[in-house]
Amino acid sequence: MPGKEYGYRMNYQWYPGHMTKAKRMMQENISLIDLVIELVDARVPLSSRNPDIDELGKNKSRLILLNKSDLADPTENKRWMAYFRERGFHVLEVNAKTGQGLKAIQPKVKEACREKIERDKKRGIRNRPVRAIVVGIPNVGKSTFINSFAGKACTKTGNRPGVTKGKQWIRLNKELELLDTPGILWPKFESEEVGKRLAMIGSMNDEILQMTELAQELLAYLLEHYREPLFERYQMEEAGGPFTPVQAMSHICENRKCYKKGQEPDYEKAAALLMDDFRSGRIGRITLETCGEMQEEEQSEEGTA
Ligand code: G4P
């Protein structure tokens, strides 16, 4: 089984060639823009960041969008907003799918690009819109975001001097233009934890994963951090507890009648069902990286460095 070998590590075979190309394209594109709009998945705000984006985006205005905020814990969303703000980013909570939170972007862009706007004014440059690029790792919602944000209002401005041939700018209004193709970045490779979290939210190819193992890991996390919604979803209260992840899995098998022929529990089916319930928000709004725990991890890494 290839899944066993990979564990939750990234698919190295796929990435290297694309990585160099993506990075080169990003460098090219970033030189043309004023503002980097970086999408992260609110359920894993750090694991869904690209490790090089801060280097690539230095000297540019920065806006982080906590996307899929509808699936993440609202309290954690607030904490993560504060976390990024403290680190000098402009940040907003959004739901690219429904468009929630998108109205706040335009004023935020103005705030983030105030220096550039002032500089232009002093130099007598008028009406030069802020140019922005949307970036993020696969599956964070970049295309969905561009579609909802630019919507029908967009007009493609086509090629113009100073713009690499073929690049299309979407003119949102007289103040903002968006590069129509998002910059795809890669996630962090080094950490198995990062791989695991990305696998949980469905950002890795499920075919190479051990779904039952992944489901056990998720159950362990939910039992520790989100016991109540988990219990409610699968009527675990009535069954009594305490539950280990293995016991919880058996319970889900029973509760959802996942059996093979001969009443043998079908753990694979139950695992798939659990992962699907989690990914679509049916267990509740869940964040896999709590701000407090990640800060502790960061501090202990700094301590050992
Ligand atoms: P990408 O360009 O960054 O690779 O991501 P893309 O827009 O393709 O979005 C990936 C998936 O995430 C899509 O789901 C999309 O609908 C969903 N998505 C994007 N933003 C949000 C959000 O804010 N909230 C929620 N709940 N989902 C979001 P899909 O399953 O691939 O497609 P579909 O079933 O939605 O059509």
Strand and helix map with partners:
Elements: H1 2-6, H2 15-30, E1 35-41, H3 53-56, E2 61-67, H4 74-86, E3 90-93, H5 105-112, H6 114-122, E4 130-136, H7 142-150, E5 155-156, E6 169-173, E7 176-179, E8 183-184, H8 192-200, H9 211-225, H10 227-233, H11 245-255, H12 267-279, H13 291-304
Parallel strand pairs: 1-2, 1-4, 2-3, 4-7, 4-8
Antiparallel strand pairs: 5-6, 6-7
Helix pairs in contact: 9-11, 9-12, 11-12
The structure holds guanosine-5',3'-tetraphosphate (G4P).
The site of guanosine-5',3'-tetraphosphate has 15 residues, from helix 7.
Task: Give a quick summary of the entry.
By secondary structure, this protein is α/β, with parallel strands linked by helices. It has helices at residues 2-6, 15-30, 53-56, 74-86, 105-112, 114-122, 142-150, 192-200, 211-225, 227-233, 245-255, 267-279, 291-304, and strands at residues 35-41, 61-67, 90-93, 130-136, 155-156, 169-173, 176-179, 183-184. It has two domains: 18-180, Rossmann fold (3-Layer(aba) Sandwich), CATH 3.40.50; 210-298, Conserved Hypothetical Protein Ylqf, Chain: A, domain 2, CATH 1.10.1580.10.
